[in-house]
Structures are given as C-alpha cells and as structure tokens.
Design a protein that fits this description.
46% of the residues lie in helices and 19% in strands. By secondary structure, it is α/β, with parallel strands linked by helices. It folds into four domains: 104 residues, no CATH class; 41 residues; 122 residues, Ribonuclease H-like superfamily/Ribonuclease H (Nucleotidyltransferase, domain 5), CATH 3.30.420; 128 residues. The strands form two sheets. Strands 1, 2, 3, 4 and 5 form a five-stranded mixed sheet that branches. A five-stranded mixed sheet has the order 8-7-6-9-10, sandwiched between helices. Strand 1 and strand 2 form a beta hairpin. Helix 3 packs across helix 4. It is elongated, with a radius of gyration of 31 Å. Bound molecules: zinc ion. Zinc ion binds next to loops.
C-alpha cells in the first residue's frame, strides 16, 4: 500500500487516499487537494468557491502491462473532484489536474513512456501492447507528438533543394519528396510525381523562402523542370549527375538483356554455363569485383563482341557523378555522348538524346558540386522505414512519420 502511495506524492494538487489490488489491478484513489486553487480544465479560468456536482476521473497509469509477463498488473487511478461552473466558458467544468491533460484517459507519464518508445523501429502495436493503451490511442498520441515537435514549415530557409520521387507502393504509386540539400532533412512530401505535385510544395513557400532558393537539383524528369522554371524562375536548375548515371546504367542493363537474349538462343558460349553469376558480375560496380572476378568476366565477355563493347561503355560511366571539376566533367560527358551515339546500341542512343536535352543542367551539377546522392541515402531510409511495418493506408500519417523519424 505504502509503496503505491509513494508513486503519487509528487502531485501537489492531488492527495492519496487509498489503493486496492484485485484481479491483477491496482486501483489508486486520489482526491483533489482542497488547498489548491481549482482552475477550469478547458480555459484555465480560476473557479469560484461554489462547487457543483461530484465527479470521478478515471485514468490509466504506468503499469507492468504485457501479455508476455506473468507478473503483469494494471494501474487505474481514480481522482475524486468537484465540478464547478466556469464563469469564463459558462459551462460546468472539471478542474485541471497536473497528472493528465484535459480529455485524456491516461496520465501524462504514461503518455511520455509511450512516446519514448515510439521510434522508426517500434510498431504501434508493440507500444500498445506494453503500455496497455489501445492502438488507436497510441496512433493519435504519436500524431499529436509529431505535430507538436516538427518545426513549422515556414521556419525552413533552404538554399539548395533536392527533389526526388519515391515509390510508396509496389507498382506505380509515387510520391514527390523535397529535401533541404544542406541539412539533409525532408521538407515536404506529396502524392504524385507530376508537375503539380512539385508546384504544391512551391505554393506553400513564402515569397522570402522562394527568393532564398538558389539551386534546385532533380532527375531528368520534364514535369519537375517545368514546375521550377515556372514558379522559381531565378533558381539554378541541376539535372542531378547521380540520376544521370543511374539513367545510363539502366539503359546499359536494358541493352544487356537484349544482347543476352540473342546469345541464349545460340547457347554456345562458355559463360552461359554460369549465366546468373556472370549477369551479377556484369551489373556490379567494377570496383566491387575481385581482380580475378574482373578478369574472368572480361575474358568471357570477349567471346561476344557486342557484350564486351557494352561492358566497356558501361565502365566509362563509372564514377561520373563524383567528378570534382567542371572541366573533367565536360570531357567525360562529351566522350560518353560521342561513344554512345556511335554505338550500335539502341538503348544507349536513346539515353544520350535525353542527356543532350539536359546538357547544361547536368554540367551545373558539377559546377556547383550538388547532386542527389545524399537524398538517395534518405530515400533508402524511407524504404527501410516502410519495411519496418509502417504502412501508408493514410498518406498524411505516413508523411508525418517519415518527416519526423527519417
Ligand atoms: Zn472555463
């Protein structure tokens, strides 16, 4: 009994009366301290002297509540108080108590405990299970906590922003994500990856914020470029070298598939015997191959002229996005375009045409040394976050969680 009383001695406005223990539940009885001036729980207005009806407020407190725990018990707090007529709101109200916020059915400390355990790794279900609070309440608690903790969007002063798209569902559901490139934080997330999606973000900005954006870095994706050209005409646009490399690798891979298909029919070459392994090595960054792997791969590829040529062209692209000087970038890009255009590979010719459409914007990336490699790191975190069991039946909640935790 006494030990339980000890847990309630810090609340000056509440007096411990007694506690009972039954069916693995402690029920703690407290009463409102008459020496403390009661104020309205709704508006904070001090109540008059004349009390209205009696009222008991029931709260859930920190428990050892876990389905797995044989010694599990629950703690329920019952606070006896009087209601008063509030002269400010003109209603019959209960007094505010220090132990819980208005309207809540749980104590502040139980809430803090739950929030402390909420992070990108823990599921709502888990926190609900060990706090004994319902999942829907934990959900709401988390959203309130996130909304109260995230800095207001108008406080952000990004100078360089990176725009990227992420797949929010397998298939074709996309979201547009805007990052503060310098701080590496997510500024905005919206469904869709069209021009309008990005415009939605820009429309949230104040004139001062818009003027403050000097550089926008993004993929070679026409709708995004349109949005920036239209709404942030002063900003320097970068067609991000990281995505350029990615686009080229994608074309190489498409072409490799085409080339492999023609060989498969012949089934003559040695490397087909270990086809899977070879494909894996072909796709890998050459730097990540052991010297003997590299040798055996190129040895095999030499048996097929097209594939060998394709592999050599692929190697040209390697390290492109990390080039440090504009001059070197110019030379390398120039060489890549020439080689690709002259190559017999249709997919490479196609990606070249895209690159040429963004040539100056790509070079801007090297001039300002800005690329979306960093944003890609955050995107990967979002992917991991999705796998941790945070779904997105509700996009706004998913967005809030991503912005808060990632
Ligand atoms: Zn009031």
């Amino acid at each position: 009994m006494e030990s339980i009383a000890y847990l309630y001695k810090d609340f000056n406005d509440l007096v411990f009366v007694k506690s009972t223990f039954e069916n693995n539940t402690y029920t703690v009885y407290l009463r409102f301290n008459k020496r403390v001036k009661a104020v309205c729980s709704e508006c904070g207005n001090p109540f008059g002297k004349k009390a209205h009806s009696k009222h008991t407020r029931t709260l859930q407190d920190i428990s050892t509540h876990s389905a797995q725990n044989a010694f599990a018990y629950k703690v329920i707090v019952k606070v006896d108080m009087h209601k008063y007529k509030c002269t400010q709101c003109g209603q019959i109200r209960t007094p505010a108590i220090s132990m819980a916020q208005k309207g809540n059915r749980y104590t502040n400390r139980l809430r803090s405990m739950a929030i402390e355990h909420l992070d990108a790794q823990t599921t709502i279900k888990k926190v609900a299970s060990f706090t004994g609070i319902s999942e829907s309440t934990i959900n709401r608690m988390e959203m309130e906590h996130i909304q109260a903790s995230l800095p207001p969007p108008q406080e952000a002063k990004p100078r360089i922003i990176a725009v990227d798209e992420i797949a929010i569902r397998k298939g074709r559901k996309y979201a547009t994500v805007v990052y503060d490139w310098e701080s590496g934080t997510i500024l905005w997330m919206v469904k869709g990856h069209d021009s309008e999606a990005l415009e939605t973000y820009i429309h949230t900005l104040t004139d001062e914020q818009k003027a403050g954006i000097e550089i926008v870095s993004m993929d070679m994706w026409r709708p995004y470029h349109h949005a920036v050209e239209k709404l942030l005409p002063h900003a320097k646009i970068i067609a991000d070298p990281f995505h350029v490399s990615k686009a080229i690798y994608k074309s190489v891979e498409e072409q490799r598939k085409i080339e492999f298909e023609t060989i498969q029919k012949e089934e003559r070459l040695n490397f087909l015997e270990q086809r899977k392994k070879q494909i894996g090595m072909f796709k890998k960054n050459p730097d990540n191959l052991e010297p003997d792997q590299y040798d055996s791969l190129t040895e095999d590829l030499k048996k097929n002229e097209s594939l060998y040529k394709l592999y050599i062209l692929k190697e040209r692209v390697h390290g492109l996005w990390k080039i440090k000087t504009l001059d070197q970038a110019k030379t390398t890009l120039h060489q890549i375009v020439l080689d690709f255009i002259q190559s017999p590979f249709e997919k490479l010719q196609k990606v070249c045409k895209t690159i040429m459409g963004y040539y100056d914007k790509i070079l801007n990336g090297f001039e300002y040394q800005v690329n979306n490699g960093k944003a890609e790191g955050i995107n990967n975190k979002i992917k991991v976050f999705k796998r941790k069991g945070y779904g997105y039946p509700n996009f706004e909640k998913f967005k809030a969680r991503v912005m808060f935790y990632v």
